[in-house]
Write a structure and sequence with these properties.
By secondary structure, the chain is an alpha/beta fold. The chain has 24 helices and 24 strands. The chain folds into four domains: 155 residues, 3-Layer(aba) Sandwich (Rossmann fold); 73 residues, no CATH class; 291 residues, Rossmann fold (3-Layer(aba) Sandwich); 64 residues, no CATH class.
């Protein structure tokens, strides 16, 4: 979708000039942001991108001097509507915050009070800054909720935060931010925690509001697909410094700083696969503020193009064309310079592994698997044992086979049963009905009833390593525990095996004695992978292992998992909400909706028509890291229905955008009958009433090419 770049008003709404922000610590003053300059004009969105710890959020808080007691602006100016905000009194800044300058946080719970009704919180924003009655403020709040496409806004005004979904909470925060028609809106990772479909709707909403109110926007994110979609101008931050800035299209087409080039090379494009492309992670990590060099290029230790000249002084921002600037002495010739370090291609190794394993050799299979949760009720009828018993049908009648050495990707919105499915497989949830067979043995029972030899062969990598690592024990002890438990090696070789595993996940032996708090998020996730490998399992289940990581760390972890699969021949189940990552990593893909698989097949088949209408909507919502990408716009209405009382017939019919236009009866059959499985050949199957020949006529949402072989479905 082509974005219209706003006319360049000579007077920006916000003009940040040579901003330097420091924090007072026990070791003295530490600079978190150094010499940053950029402007934001009316109706313009400026994107701030970079890894965690690069100073993006610090800039946002520095604009309104919300840095805490130990933070301060050491130098520079923040000119807002012609007035410098640096040095202003707290009372003056309070009048601006929430009125002329608003902020949308990553976690809406940071901005919403769980003890106060949403309506009262919204009304307070108006009455605090405006001379307006509570009744008029209430009406304006209802209208603004309607403007952000909130269903039944009058009812939402009377609810508490916990009574609405995460996507609705974010809409409330956006409505709150827009109530006073601010001149500047700062958004700090506003869509990171949202499903891809909700994210797409929120981004549409932000674009509509920007066009209607002509607000100046700062959009902070680590997602290059999102920033490509919403931004007109881009600022790339690294270790507290602005290393590149310019028009969004210019930077994506011709990045001139090695860090920007590195970020773009970390992201798989939708349609890329592990057989025909590679991810090139940026080696190393962002240096902490106290250890950043001041008299040399700060990116040199991680740069593939660094020379001795890069270490002889801090480079200035050089003009490489128009308003495009880059902080690199080789900015004008970077695309033609030799690299000092190259990533190894893995495609041939992956292909060789795929050919060495027979696709017909099954590892895992489950038939008509169901995981239900009994719904507790406090009604008198239920307490005395009368009335119909209700169940949350988290997983409902799912069947498939997974071959050895293959990777199965599982995608779908939150609440569709992905995590419950894998927890049922691994034995952390009680299976209600159906059978699970692993290595030819029935493992339907919970993990507590399984033989240790079977537990050894099936391990899991969780989304949040902090929830699975004990903060009181060293990394070495935590990896050693499963080695001792499963007797992977003799006792005298346990430490040697731990160090071998640390090296396998690209960590040195020095990590053996470190505690989890001494590691970065990416390093903790590597430890989680090492611990899963400790028993040398045949199957590794990864539940959103990269969703919370920076793009550079994400690329490194994906490459690591591919290396592990190539080295050990392990099979994997990979759950993620990023369809680009799933397509790149997986051989086969299952699309889940409300407890059921609605599409199943080889990865390359899922990304070309025919699609299940739900898959089509998911693909339409994926942010693509290309500002000029054209994408069919399909948006789903409402949220995923309750698994306690799923819709009759096709469970997707209440949100399906295709049934009325493609079925002669207007989709009545979808409401009344369970859809049949339709085959498109090579194991690609779709659960839908719309004839597959009609689904083939749908125009592609995106184009994807690749190679792969089919998953063996249960007929």
């Amino acid at each position: 979708m082509m974005k219209k770049t706003p006319d360049k008003n000579p007077d920006p709404v916000l003009d940040v000039r040579h901003l330097t922000i420091a924090y007072e610590t026990r070791k003295g003053e530490v600079e978190a942001v150094r010499d940053v300059s950029f402007g934001v004009r009316e109706g313009q969105t400026v994107g701030l991108v970079g890894e965690s710890g690069c100073g993006k959020s610090t800039i946002a808080f520095g604009i309104v001097n919300f840095l805490g007691p130990n933070g301060r602006i050491n130098s520079g100016k923040v000119i807002f509507q012609g007035n410098d905000l640096v040095g202003r009194l707290e009372n003056e800044l309070k009048k601006l915050r929430g009125d002329r300058i608003s902020m949308v946080y990553q976690d809406p719970m940071q901005a919403l009070n769980p003890a106060v009704r949403l309506g009262d919180q919204l009304v307070e924003v108006l009455t605090f800054h405006k001379d307006i009655s509570a009744a008029n403020a209430w009406d304006r709040c209802v209208e603004m909720l309607r403007r952000v496409y909130m269903p039944d806004p009058q009812d939402v005004m009377r609810r508490f935060t916990h009574q609405i979904s995460g996507g609705q909470q974010q809409r409330v925060v956006i409505a709150m931010a827009m109530l006073n028609n601010p001149a500047l809106l700062i958004m700090d990772e506003p869509t990171t925690a949202l499903d891809v479909t909700v994210e797409a709707a929120v981004l549409d909403l932000l674009e509509d509001l920007k066009n209607e109110y002509q607000t100046a926007n700062i959009f902070i994110t680590h997602n290059l697909g999102v920033v490509a979609r919403v931004s007109d101008y881009l600022c790339v931050m690294y270790a507290g410094e602005l290393v590149e800035r310019g028009d969004i299209r210019e930077i994506f087409e011709r990045p001139c700083h090695p860090y920007t080039m590195g970020l773009l090379s970390c992201v798989p494009k939708l349609g890329d696969s592990k057989l025909d492309s590679n991810l090139h992670p940026i080696r190393g990590r962002v240096p902490p503020p106290a250890k950043r060099p001041k008299d040399e290029c700060i990116f040199a230790p991680r740069c593939n193009y660094a020379t001795d000249q890069c270490r002889q002084g801090r480079p200035a921002l050089l003009e490489v064309g128009g308003d495009h600037l880059a902080r690199c002495i080789y900015a004008g010739e970077i695309d033609s310079r030799p690299r000092t370090r190259r990533s190894q291609r893995r495609a041939r190794q992956v292909e060789a592994l795929a050919q060495s394993i027979k696709p017909a050799e099954p590892l895992l299979g489950f038939d008509q698997l169901k995981v239900y949760y009994p719904q507790q009720s406090n009604s008198l009828v239920s307490l005395i044992g009368l009335g119909e018993k209700k169940f949350v049908k988290a997983v409902d009648d799912v069947s498939l086979r997974l071959a050895k050495g293959r990777t199965l990707g599982v995608v779908g919105e939150s609440g569709c049963g992905k995590s419950t499915l894998v927890k049922g497989i691994i034995g952390l949830e009680q299976v209600t009905e159906g059978q699970i067979e692993f290595l030819g043995i029935d493992v339907t029972q919970p993990v507590s009833g399984r033989d240790a030899s079977l537990i050894r062969e099936m391990q899991m990598v969780f989304q949040n390593p902090d929830s699975t690592l004990n903060p009181s024990y060293s990394i070495g002890k935590q990896i050693a525990r499963p080695i001792r438990k499963f007797k992977t090696v003799p006792k005298k070789r346990v430490k040697e095996e731990v160090i071998r595993l640390l090296k396998a996940v690209r960590l040195s032996a020095t990590y053996y004695d470190r505690l989890p708090r001494q590691l970065s998020g990416g390093e903790k996730q590597r430890v989680g992978i090492a611990r899963a490998l400790a028993s040398r399992p045949d199957l590794i289940i990864c539940d959103e292992p990269v969703s919370a990581l920076d793009v550079s760390v994400q690329a490194a972890v994906i490459n690591l998992l591919l290396d592990i699969q190539q080295s050990f021949g392990s099979s994997m189940i990979f759950i993620a909400h990023d369809l680009s990552v799933v397509r790149f990593f997986s051989d086969d893909i299952a699309v889940m909706y409300l407890g059921q698989i609605v599409e199943l097949g080889p990865a390359e088949a899922i990304y070309d028509p025919p699609y299940h209408p739900y898959t089509e909507a998911l693909l339409s919502a994926v942010p693509i890291p290309d500002p000029d990408a054209e994408q069919t716009e399909i948006r789903l209405n409402g949220n995923v229905p309750s698994a306690l009382d799923p819709p009759s017939g096709c469970r997707f019919h209440t949100r399906c955008p295709r049934r009325k236009e493609m079925l002669a009866d207007g989709g009545l059959i979808c409401e009344q009958q369970v859809p049949p499985w339709q085959s498109n050949g090579r194991g690609h199957r779709i659960l839908c009433h719309i004839p597959i020949e009609m689904l083939k006529t749908i125009d592609p949402v995106v184009h994807a090419n690749g190679d792969g072989s089919s998953l063996q479905p249960v007929e």
